[in-house]
Specification:
Elements lengths: L1 H11 L14 E14 L4 E13 L9 E12 L5 E11 L5 E8 L5 E8 L10 E10 L3 E8 L2
Antiparallel strand pairs: 1-2, 1-8, 2-3, 3-4, 4-5, 5-6, 6-7, 7-8
Amino acid sequence: MKKLFAALLFVLAPTVSLAGGHSGLGGHGTGMTMNVETMQGTSGTLVMQTTQDVWMWETPPEGFPAATTATCNQFIALGTTPQPIGGAVVCRAVDPDGDVFMNTGVFQADGTVKFTNVAATGKWAAYIGASWIGKTETQIGDKASVYSFTPTN
């Protein structure tokens, strides 16, 4: 089971990447796993993992916070091996000013996660439709990771 969680975290840590940024609004984050739920089938396993993350923007526009917290839920499908066969992520955040944003992510074949901002208010509203690629940089045991996110548009 420990190998399963390690494999999941390696692939999923980028899921903690965030939403909300056009060209140049990238950064890095940390994720701490708070809860894991597993549903075992006869030919595979479904896992839901909840993380508490801190997102740190590299060059935030004026008036934007340099960092914010987020809660992410990762949904992972596994076949007969510990390698994920697919997955999706939903991250939601309220920044220090009270503006909200939400993004969704889809696992990519190369182990990254592509995130898209799907809902936002206030200063983040202009970033609806913006997307990032999240990549795990460091896996810290079974329950924590450090990742980066790079804007794609």
